[in-house]
What we know:
Low-confidence stretches of chain B: 47-58, 219-244
Number of strands of chain A: 0
CATH superfamily of the largest domain in chain A: RNA polymerase sigma factor, region 2, helix turn helix motif
Helix content of chain A: 55-70%
CATH architecture of the largest domain in chain A: Orthogonal Bundle
Mean pLDDT of chain B: 77
Oligomer: heterodimer
CATH class of the largest domain in chain B: Mainly Alpha
Number of helices of chain A: 12
Structural class of chain B: alpha+beta
Structural class of chain A: mainly alpha
Amino acid sequence: MHSSPRNGSRANLSQFRSWWTLATEVPSTPSRITLVTPLTFVGDDAALVEALRVGHPGAVAALYDRYGAQVRLTLRSILGPDDDIPDLLQEVFIRALDRIGRLREVDRLGSWLTTMAVFVGRAQIRVRSRRRWLRVLSPERTRSRQLEQPPSDARRAVREIYAVLDEMPIDQRMVFVLRHFHGARLAEAAEACETSLATVKRRLAQAEARFLEAVRRQPGLAQWLEEGTRWTEKKA
Amino acid sequence: MDRKEGLENIARRVREVLADDPAASDELRRSRAAVLEKVGRRKMTSRFLRWSPGVPRRRSMLLAISGSFAAGAAALWIWTRPPTFEIGEARPGELGDVVEATDGRVVPVSFSEGSTLVLRDGGRVRVLSLNAAAARVLVEDGVVDATIVHRQARKTRWEFEVGLYRVTVTGTKFRIAFRAGDGSLRVSTEAGRVVVAGGCLEAPATVGAGESLEPSCAPPAGPAANDSAVAPAAPPDATPTVKANQIERWRQLLAGGHLLDGLRAAERASFDQVCRVATEKELLALADAGRFFGPSKRAVAALTALRQRFPGSRDAGTAAFTLGRMAFENDHDYRKAAGWFETYMREEPRGPLMGDAFGRLMEARLHSGDGTGARASAQQYLRRFPGGPYSSEAIGILSK
């Protein structure tokens, strides 16, 4: 027995859209198996969190695609150029996936990931500090993990600035880099460091004073501090 | 120069150096692959770490009371926990994995809440999502006999995506027979009922107990056509010069996921005429094929046709966004791109691509030299999506 289609509104096939969009993700020969793996996730942050919790096959890739660049920039702001950043980036996302069930405010996924990045960055600063001690004790057995950047005044200056920050207490450094290098507002910095706004303000004032004092002691950096356009001129 | 200005000078230069990072995309791509690989490996090992609830033992009255609470908690946990599924006798299933019945074998897929799928005749499926309230299964090929158990007092929603069709289960026992090669589908219901939508169906069709449905994309053969043949999506003004078999061919190929072949078949059948008869989903598929395999003018034609023929639909909004993306990435026509992103935002103010459209509009305005517009977009973006993926760019624009 056969049935006829009944009248009704056209069904919403938005879910099916994801099936079609697979092709846009896979720039290879259009074999059918390739087309169905991986599935592309489409949806806002709340839907993405839900998809991660239920194990949607495309959700992890979607999370990374949406926030990978942001998390990487946060790590670079905290640590400066560092060749461990790819590993740390992976660590942030693995930690986040392990803890996604605990995220309460699903629409604050981005700032929650920033908090993860701050945590991972903080741990990396401690690792670096231990490495410095090891280098002092046994210089031939350790090597610098600082990425060798192409020589330029600006890059050299940035390296010196992060060397100044390495001497700063870690809590003050975190607030300072988030505020000044990452461009976070004070409230965002407080959330990322999981502390109060008042504490952030206090640490920031201390960090700024310490930073300026250290920079002024270094002739090159002091000059850049006063001649804000110097780097631009050099680059040009 | 005061302290604040000096700090801002240094901060701005550091931000510039950090942003000037040629290795960024390469690093991001490698880390992405590593994250996905790690997650995949962890899923495999987690199969062996599943916890099994123990049986509470009754030793005293106090213990009995605690046992009752524990049993209640366990029952609540069992009731609310996401169901799992097994392939064959005891192999744990994972979301997204291919389950296939090859070499004439029959492969059962058993779900913990009692539903079963039996794959036969080359049946191939993937369980896309599964929770206590809903399940979604992609049927790629072959025959699937489904027996769906709905828990009492809780209506479970099961959906099967089959080629261009979607089968929503409101009842219990049915068979899906799908041939990916030609996109043909037959749904037969033994008990309860299912609703079939999409593809060539103009409206969702209910298939009750003892009924079956074989939608066909072929044009009606004439007045004596069988009632069971579902009317094709082609509107009455479809140009007769497009041969019926050519229409069917590109439809079948697109339905089977062969985007490139579908595009080429549509070109052979006259692409302009195909754009006049294709459904929204088919036009989006043709646009994807054009974007991906070229020429991109096919994508533009398909998306433009979609917007002309289905104005006001969600897919028309998606088409506007895609046109903006193509103008931005392919043509570097940033003014045009900005116009399309604005169109999307106007037409789909609550659409899923809103954040992306906002961010891309900001970038398009910046590239087109509209600094004021870019700043306005950046401010709006940060207000609406603080911490969103374009926030660092927005902050960068505002700091200039």
